[in-house]
């Protein structure tokens, strides 16, 4: 996949370079070609100083609701802008429900973890301490011992750049770009 990305990047670079060297007058689509070239960089779209102005312009234009720029001769497709303000750390999944204060988003562990014994029912009782930070507390054998296990709930992280677009180059390389 890395070689495919590099080949796509090289093809785009050659197309843009030959266009720019040809002495043609600048056209509106130059910016779109610069954006595609910069987004194709495995090191990130703003790794190089030359890419910062066209990418910053892209973020501004997308934030205003404008469409993704075009670049003729390059096979690419962009999705509609999306918005995902929250994310979870590894080992957790994002969940949401309609709580008393509206939609609430949390991160729930994808596998059971040891939790306080006070949260599990004792001797067949259905009673367990109420704790909104753990789902489904239950007794489970682990390493030959009986342990109280549950699915911890934590607050989600906030993305500094919650908007995104998915860009597909040459029909095979898709990259999610956050802005």
Describe, in plain words, how this protein is organized in 3D.
With 179 residues, the chain is an alpha+beta fold. It has two domains: 2-83 and 159-178, no CATH class; 86-157, no CATH class. The chain is 23% helix and 33% strand. The protein has helices spanning 2-21, 30-39, 52-63; strands at 76-78, 82-83, 86-87, 92-99, 102-109, 113-114, 134-142, 145-154, 157-158, 163-169, 173-178. The strands form three sheets. Strands 4, 5, 6, 7 and 8 form a five-stranded antiparallel sheet that branches. Strands 1, 2, 10 and 11 form a four-stranded antiparallel sheet that branches. A two-stranded antiparallel sheet has the order 3-9. A hairpin with a 2-residue loop joins strand 4 and strand 5. Helix 1 packs antiparallel against helix 2. The protein starts with a helix and ends with a strand. Keywords: Signal. Residues 1-28 form the signal peptide.
């Amino acid at each position: 996949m890395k070689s495919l990305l590099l080949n796509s990047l090289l093809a785009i670079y050659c197309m843009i370079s030959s266009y720019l060297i040809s002495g043609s007058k600048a056209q509106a689509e130059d910016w779109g070609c610069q954006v595609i070239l910069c987004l194709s960089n495995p090191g990130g779209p703003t790794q190089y100083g030359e890419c910062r102005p066209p990418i910053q312009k892209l973020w501004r234009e997308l934030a205003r609701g404008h469409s993704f720029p075009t670049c003729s001769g390059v096979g690419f497709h962009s999705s509609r802008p999306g918005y995902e303000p929250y994310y979870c750390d590894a080992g957790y999944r994002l969940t949401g429900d309609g709580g008393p204060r509206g939609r609430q988003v949390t991160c729930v562990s994808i596998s059971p973890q040891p939790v306080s014994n006070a949260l599990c029912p004792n001797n067949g009782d259905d009673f367990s301490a109420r704790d909104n930070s753990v789902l489904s507390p239950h007794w489970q054998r682990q390493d030959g011992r009986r342990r109280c296990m549950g699915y911890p709930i934590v607050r989600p992280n906030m993305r500094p750049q919650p908007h995104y677009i998915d860009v597909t180059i040459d029909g095979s390389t898709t990259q999610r770009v956050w802005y």
